[in-house]
Specification:
single chain, about 90 residues, alpha+beta, three-stranded antiparallel β-sheet, 6 strands, globular, transcription cis-regulatory region binding, DNA-binding, transcription regulation, Winged helix family transcriptional regulator
Length: about 90
């Protein structure tokens, strides 16, 4: 997204020239979604990327990260794709 830039070496996120404080996991989710811009990324794939294992149905860890990213960067940034996962807005 034009107003969001990531610095992977420093784990910094900037939005409209202001630094946004993200946890490492939030940064990883955002980076992966940005690398796959325009594509829906499955919950399973995000879980594997974050934790190295399949996200269990009962686990809401990924949803918490998505919720926090939306809260910090704007509700419209990440869209839920029903039955698939998530994609950038």
């Amino acid at each position: 997204y034009a107003d969001i830039t990531l610095d992977p070496a420093e784990h910094k996120t900037m939005q409209r020239d202001a630094e946004v404080d993200l946890t490492l996991k939030e940064f990883m989710v955002l980076r992966y979604l940005m690398e796959n811009k325009g594509k829906a990324v499955s919950r399973q794939r995000l879980g594997e990327m974050l934790y190295g294992w399949d996200v269990e149905i009962g686990s809401n860890a990924l949803e918490v990260h998505i919720h926090n990213l939306r809260k910090k960067l704007g509700q419209q940034l990440i869209r839920t794709v029903r039955g698939l996962g998530y994609k950038l807005g």
